[in-house]
Design brief:
The protein has about 450 residues and is of the alpha/beta class. It has 13 helices and 20 strands. The protein has two domains: about 10-15 and about 105-340, Rossmann fold, CATH 3.40.50; about 345-440, GMP Synthetase, Chain A, domain 3. The chain is globular. About 45% of the residues are buried.
Length: about 450
């Protein structure tokens, strides 16, 4: 894999004890800052505590967790710890399940912290200074495109901030501009690949992309492998993860080694504390176990969070601290496998959408990026689950055979029976950014 280089070797080469020492010192400073915040003081008081209790690192697990409902109750500027005149930009959550929540970024947050965090991720993913990058994340209040722009500029890459969409133009530019790296939704790149092939363009020879940084949704290892197979030889699809509440797409990234095991490093643990906890007990899980990601932002000035419950579920690596890349203080986690508030309970069986995706990716003849789960509610009957997929146009398989095989595989692997609908290619919605996979609909007479 060649020589592994660190963006910040004085930090990335530390062992876990070295990283924890940094976290302890910064947590004490965070406690001092929050002690002067009326919102934070009131919040801790309700739990019989005060912010200065954070000064003891061992007390962290006793601190109250932070939920989206807590933030919305403090609308319009929840947990803002600086005067609004010091805010240089606001970012917001997607608001897909309610009113978006605003977070303020100070001059230091924007022009020091975010570049520091993002440059490390870009280096770990394999992007190089001077790479021509097709930046396809969205803009506006969402932090994704903003963070990438700031990171790429600080890192020294050549940014083409195109954003999502404009497929006809992108098919031309991917060849003409010879982009060497990209950051966008993996589903959007697969859509571009299929459109290129339909026009007689072979991405494996016509494009120069070497590495992609993919966020917005988790994809299965099978989908990632297929994506890489359609790209120029040696192309790596690197998974990135973060949230607006945590400060952007800065929580984790796969390196060349963890890519091969479908894992990511918690790469910014000197500026964040990332807990992986049991979603029921909120106690830390052990290696190999599944838990929810809980974030404490140590360095953010504008709108810090303490024990923010992301609701995202990951598997802590069997060996979190042994990556050959040398980042032994920054533990490894698996890709996002679902959300603790998005688990589907089908006739008593817990099912994650990512499990369904894995099975679809393994089923011959399906379009890997096009699938949806529909939950039909009927007050008189049990919920009916329908998995909708598309038949690849080039596949010689009958739709009925795909429906049979997929339904059988879901039942045998997950223990539930679902209805499967196989539609013509192009029938289901495509997503340029975050995909919405589970849809609830009321059954009508």
């Amino acid at each position: 894999m060649g020589t592994i280089t660190f963006e910040h070797p004085e930090i990335e080469s530390l062992d876990r004890d070295g990283i924890v020492a940094i976290q302890r010192a910064k947590l004490k400073k965070l406690a001092e800052r929050l002690q002067g915040s009326p919102d934070w003081t009131k919040r801790f008081k309700a739990a019989g505590m005060e912010p200065r209790d954070l000064g003891d690192f061992d007390n962290l697990h006793a601190m109250p967790t932070l939920e989206k409902s807590d933030l919305r109750a403090l609308y319009p500027y929840p947990m803002l710890t600086v005067d609004i005149s010091q805010v240089r930009r606001f970012v917001a959550t997607s608001g897909t399940t309610g009113l978006p929540v605003m977070f303020g970024l100070t001059e230091r947050d924007l022009n020091h912290l975010l570049p520091f965090q993002m440059s490390r991720l870009l280096r770990a993913a394999g992007i190089l200074p001077g790479d021509k990058v097709y930046q396809g994340y969205g803009y506006g209040l969402w932090i994704g495109g903003l963070a990438m722009d700031i990171g790429l500029a600080a890192y020294g890459a050549v940014n083409f901030p195109i954003g999502p969409g404009r497929s006809d133009l992108m098919l031309k530019w991917l060849g003409d501009h010879e982009f060497t790296a990209c950051s966008l939704s993996p589903l959007w790149l697969m859509t571009l690949i299929n459109q290129a092939k339909a026009q007689g363009i072979d991405p494996r020879t016509a494009w120069k992309l070497r590495v992609g940084v993919f966020g917005g949704q988790s994809i299965s290892a099978a989908f990632r492998d297929q994506l890489e197979a359609e790209m120029p030889p040696g192309f790596r699809a690197q998974n990135i993860y973060g949230t607006t509440e945590a400060g952007g797409p800065i929580v984790s990234i796969s390196c060349p080694y963890s890519h091969d095991t479908d894992e990511m490093h918690l790469i910014n643990e000197d500026t964040l504390i990332t807990e992986i906890v049991d979603p029921m007990t909120l106690r830390p899980v052990g290696p190999g176990e599944v838990g929810e990601v809980v974030i404490t932002s140590l360095d953010r000035e504008g709108s810090p969070v303490v024990r923010w419950r992301t609701r995202d579920l990951v598997r802590l690596s069997d060996k979190p601290y042994d990556c050959p890349c040398g980042r032994h203080g920054m533990p490894k986690i698996g890709r996002i496998i679902g959300r603790s508030d998005d688990m589907l309970k089908i006739r008593g069986v817990m099912v994650f959408p990512s499990q369904v995706e894995d099975i679809i990716a393994d089923t011959e003849g399906t379009v890997k990026e096009a699938w949806h789960i529909y939950i039909d509610s009927d007050p008189m009957l049990m919920e009916e689950i329908t998995v909708a997929v598309e038949k690849a146009g080039a596949s010689g398989r009958a739709a009925q055979d795909i429906e049979h095989d997929l339904g059988h595989a879901i039942h045998s692997r997950l223990g539930v029976r679902v209805k499967v609908e196989c539609l013509a290619e192009g029938s289901l919605p495509r997503y340029e950014a975050k995909a919405v996979r589970v849809h609830r609909r009321d059954k009508k007479d």
